[in-house]
């Protein structure tokens, strides 16, 4: 707990410095999620309502006799949660308490039906998490039912006994509801925990304003900050906030998550700053299918053949200068890379000499998927790789002749490298033990939407 509070304080101080006032992610929890939470919440609620009932002072024989009361079972056959527009969530639980009254000469068994009602407010916490608080809570009791059939012994005792139980439960049950909600808030606090992207990078999510609540959903505006070596990735300021339209995604989904263009731009910028998009492609002479050598290149560039009469392996040093761009259009996501590629060959002194360099443009199709909580990507090349000679130490280079060879030795290693990076994925907003199930992804102009069921597993 101390660690969580310390992290929360750090984020509260840090996030405003990196432009946390503008959302780039919107999480919309639809009313369908309330049915799932209600069903999953029955067992915890039943356990929480197992309170201790103090002895009942039974007036018998002119003196008070303490009578022990034990709750044998709490059953919640019906639990309903509903959004209260502009406020929070309403809870209605139909509950049956079974009591054992330790009377002499034989115990008495009672069932007490009860309706438990509570209104909870959902607000923004000081460290950027949703906070739920109980604003009102009360119980409605029905008449107690004698279960063991000894009605002749019960009437004189039943009314005062039931009043005693009601008075106890009125005080204790709402306190237990409040404690249950506080435990839920601790769980909601895991929303702001760091989620690793790679060995030196993380993403931090935080809620930036009070949730929007309608009769159909609760919507959280969330700021996502990516960190590289503890430094935030900061984009140029854009005054246009991201707003998730009303009717997007799959109808009936529990969660609708909107991810703006900014989040993708931040992720790509992080990869560039980390140098993760750079790679070296090395030819191997002993390979059965090796095109990356001086002999193959010499057939296209005569000067290479003259300088290297014996086959030598080549190295392509791929370095990313210009920032990659992600474009999100309806039903279409693309990634554009503009690497600088230097072609090197071994020199006599065991060093490498530069033969020529190329400015390259690669357009890629970006396919997105979600696994558990991580958004992952894979790429494929769109069209031909575009080459322009930047410099040459081997005379004139006809790019039309070099294009097929460079495409063959460049495309597959680049795709393998990119797909390994994008396959690590970025965690979507989530709390501990929560997963996205059967997600569907929709690409719109400037943002994507993940529509999904949710699964909570301890």
From TrEMBL:
PANTHER family: BPI FOLD-CONTAINING FAMILY B MEMBER 2, BPI FOLD-CONTAINING FAMILY B MEMBER 4-RELATED. Belongs to the BPI/LBP/Plunc superfamily. BPI/LBP family. One of its GO terms (molecular function) is lipid binding. InterPro entries: Bactericidal_perm-incr_a/b_dom (IPR017943), BPI_fold-BPI/LBP (IPR051660), Lipid-bd_serum_glycop_C (IPR001124), Lipid-bd_serum_glycop_N (IPR017942). Keywords: Signal. Pfam families: LBP_BPI_CETP, LBP_BPI_CETP_C. Residues 1-20 form the signal peptide. It comes from the Eukaryota. Residues 249-452 form the Lipid-binding serum glycoprotein C-terminal domain. It comes from Balaenoptera musculus (Blue whale). This is BPI fold-containing family B member 2. SMART domains: BPI2.
């Amino acid at each position: 707990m101390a660690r969580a509070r310390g992290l929360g304080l750090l984020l509260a101080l840090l996030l405003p410095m990196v432009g946390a006032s503008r959302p780039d992610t919107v999480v919309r929890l639809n009313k369908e999620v309330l049915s799932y939470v209600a069903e999953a919440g029955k067992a915890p609620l039943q356990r929480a309502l197992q309170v201790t009932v103090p002895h009942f002072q039974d007036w018998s024989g002119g003196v008070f006799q303490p009578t022990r009361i034990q709750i044998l079972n709490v059953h919640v056959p019906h639990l309903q949660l509903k959004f209260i527009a502009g406020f929070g969530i309403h809870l209605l639980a139909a509950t049956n308490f079974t009591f054992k009254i330790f009377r002499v000469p034989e115990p008495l068994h009672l069932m007490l039906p009860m309706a438990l009602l509570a209104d909870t407010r959902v607000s923004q916490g000081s460290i950027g998490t949703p906070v739920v608080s109980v604003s009102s809570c009360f119980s409605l009791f029905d008449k107690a039912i004698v279960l063991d059939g000894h009605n002749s012994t019960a009437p004189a005792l039943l009314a005062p006994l039931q009043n005693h139980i009601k008075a106890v439960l009125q005080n204790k049950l709402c306190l237990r509801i409040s404690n249950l909600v506080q435990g839920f808030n601790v769980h909601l606090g895991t929303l702001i925990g760091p989620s690793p992207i790679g060995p030196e990078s993380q993403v931090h999510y935080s809620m930036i304003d009070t949730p929007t609540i309608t009769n159909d959903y609760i919507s959280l505006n969330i700021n996502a900050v990516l960190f590289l070596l503890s430094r935030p990735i900061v984009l140029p300021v854009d005054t246009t906030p991201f707003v998730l339209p009303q009717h997007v995604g799959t109808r009936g989904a529990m969660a609708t998550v909107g991810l703006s263009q900014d989040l993708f731009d931040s992720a790509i910028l992080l990869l560039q700053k980390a140098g993760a998009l750079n790679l070296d492609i090395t030819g191997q002479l002993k390979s059965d299918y090796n095109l990356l050598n001086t002999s193959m290149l010499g057939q296209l560039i005569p000067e290479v053949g003259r300088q290297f009469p014996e086959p030598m392996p080549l190295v392509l040093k791929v370095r990313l200068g210009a920032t990659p761009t992600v474009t999100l259009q309806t039903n279409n996501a693309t990634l554009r890379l503009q690497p600088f590629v230097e072609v090197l060959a071994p020199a006599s002194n065991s060093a490498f000499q530069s033969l020529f360099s190329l400015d390259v443009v690669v357009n890629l199709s970006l396919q997105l998927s979600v696994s558990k909580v991580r958004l992952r990507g894979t790429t494929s090349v769109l069209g031909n790789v575009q080459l322009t000679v930047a410099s040459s130490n081997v005379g004139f280079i006809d790019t039309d002749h070099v294009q097929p060879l460079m495409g063959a030795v460049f495309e597959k290693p680049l795709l393998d490298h990119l797909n390994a990076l994008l396959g690590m994925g970025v965690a979507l907003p989530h709390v501990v033990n929560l997963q996205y199930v059967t997600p569907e992804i929709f690409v719109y102009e400037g943002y994507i939407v993940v529509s999904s069921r949710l699964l909570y597993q301890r």
